[in-house]
């Protein structure tokens, strides 16, 4: 991007007001590309270098391709001279090998805020693995036989694991007592003795009731003779 005919007319109008408009050196200007200077003279009738720009302590002519108008906010850069071929080198020109001045650091730098170290949560305790199916199955007996007494009758049941094999099979009184005696457990014998005593009491009451009924029946038969 370089100076257009409208830009040149604008520079000429600013110069006519007694002001020195700023311009920016393009890449075609070589070493000073990107720097700024002030236009002090302009000859629109010129063919090549017809724009005289002051930068530093020097004033040199430039062409329209070597200059452009600064963008908004631009122009704060320091202007620096360049070494042009065929132009006299004055005391204000800097040598080509002089490094560009580095911007000065700010007077007060912000110190980085040290963030508190985040507390790392302790890992949760590992869950115990479920026991294998074989181990769980071993907790249940392979066969369970249950002898029960209810409503004056003995019954037996059998389960294999969680499956019922036999349910409520009737058992004779004598066989049930034999099973209990075969267990050889004092606790079982004590409980069975209580059950047997209850059975005997109920049987005695039933026998007495039947005897009374028998006596009443025999008395009626005697009356009928």
UniProtKB/TrEMBL annotation:
Keywords assigned: Coiled coil
Region spans: Disordered: 66-142
Positions in coiled-coil regions: 196-224
Compositional bias ranges of the Basic and acidic residues kind: 95-114
This protein's record includes keyword Coiled coil: yes
Domain of life: Bacteria
Protein name: Uncharacterized protein
Organism for this UniProt entry: Glycomyces albidus
Upper taxonomic lineage: Bacteria, Bacillati, Actinomycetota, Actinomycetes, Glycomycetales
């Amino acid at each position: 991007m370089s100076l257009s005919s409208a830009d040149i007319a604008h520079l000429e109008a600013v110069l006519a007001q007694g002001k020195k408009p700023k311009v920016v050196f393009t890449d075609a200007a070589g070493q000073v590309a990107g720097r700024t200077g002030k236009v002090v003279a302009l000859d629109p009738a010129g063919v090549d270098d017809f724009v005289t720009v002051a930068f530093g302590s020097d004033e040199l002519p430039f062409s329209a391709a070597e200059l452009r108008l600064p963008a908004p906010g631009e122009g704060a850069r320091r202007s620096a001279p360049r070494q042009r071929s065929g132009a006299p080198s004055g005391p204000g020109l800097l040598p080509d090998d002089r490094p560009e001045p580095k911007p000065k650091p700010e007077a007060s730098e912000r110190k980085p805020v040290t963030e508190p170290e985040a507390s790392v949560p302790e890992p949760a305790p590992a869950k115990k693995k479920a026991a294998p199916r074989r181990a769980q199955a071993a907790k249940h007996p392979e066969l369970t036989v249950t002898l029960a007494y209810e409503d004056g009758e003995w019954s037996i049941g059998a389960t294999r694991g969680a499956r019922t094999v036999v349910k409520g099979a009737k058992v004779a009184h004598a066989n049930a007592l034999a099973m209990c005696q075969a267990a050889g457990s004092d606790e079982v014998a004590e409980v069975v003795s209580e059950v047997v005593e209850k059975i005997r009491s109920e049987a005695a009451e039933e026998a007495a009731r039947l005897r009374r009924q028998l006596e009443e029946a025999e008395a009626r038969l005697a009356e009928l003779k």
